Amino acid sequence: MSHALILGVSGISVPEVVRLLKEKISDVSTVSHVFFTAYIATDDFESLRKVNTSLLETAIRSIEEVSKDLKVVILQTGGKGYGLEFPKEVNIAPPLREDMPRIPQPYQDKIFYYTQYDLLTELSKGKSWTFTEIRPDGIVGFVPGSNAMNMAQGIALYLSLYKEVNGVGATVPFPGFEHGYNSTHSDTFQDVLARMEIFAATNPQKCGNGGIFNIADGDTVTWAQVWPKICTYFDLIGRGPKPDSQPMEAFVKENAKAWGAMVEKHGLDPSGMKFQNWAHVHFMLVQFDFDRQYDLSRAREVGFMESIDTAQGYFTAWDRMKAAKIFP
């Protein structure tokens, strides 16, 4: 019988994590599949690499200590593995494939996904467990708590406030630039991502031994295709960017009183706006202004065929946010 554990630990010592696992999970000794999605943000690349690699090592050594049934570890990473943080410094040549070499130095040392992968390679040697790396592009989804990488929530907060300020049927320009509006990318809806990770975890003979798999909604898209569609969810008309478009965060700050009134009127959870990471949303919509679409051939070759229309992924995530009172 398989027993999955989705793991996020805070960087404390192995003995302390072992104690907490035994205390919080009565049958932790039967854990067979681990999904590692934890992340700690720091101020520089060196500490980011050290902290997050140590985080993973603590997690895996702790699981090995409490469970002798470990079979599979799923490591969730992302587009940083293709150097997307450094589009001016490295050659990004889409469609991005898993067999592409690591980006060159000195930028290679700034990617903690590489050291996490190498760590799992070493830790799994001679062991009864194996691992798989899953690489989503920008994740579209909802989580009950705050998430620093929540692009869909930021867009929803912005568009719901835009509707409140400008009215139903207002035209909302894309808050970026023309070349970014037309650049290609591959969003990843959270349910598709989760099912790919479950597929990999339950098919180690196809996906294990350090296999790396891209995952995305399916078809390559541009914001020119997606933006007008997703704006309809808020009864707005989405159009291309304007040279003088106001940044999303600036618009939100300028209309803070209107948002406060919305919170009161609709009984919204104020933490969604309070903890929204606008820098990440700006990064994804404005600064990621180059082609970066994924090649999904490897996932298809092992039998994972699921896909979804990208706009529908946003709609489903937003339905969940509305139910949680993130926006009206």
UniProtKB/TrEMBL annotation:
It comes from the Eukaryota. CDD domains: 5beta-POR_like_SDR_a. Residues 20-328 form the PRISE-like Rossmann-fold domain. InterPro entries: NAD(P)-bd_dom_sf, PRISE-like_Rossmann-fold. This is PRISE-like Rossmann-fold domain-containing protein. It holds the Pfam family PRISE.
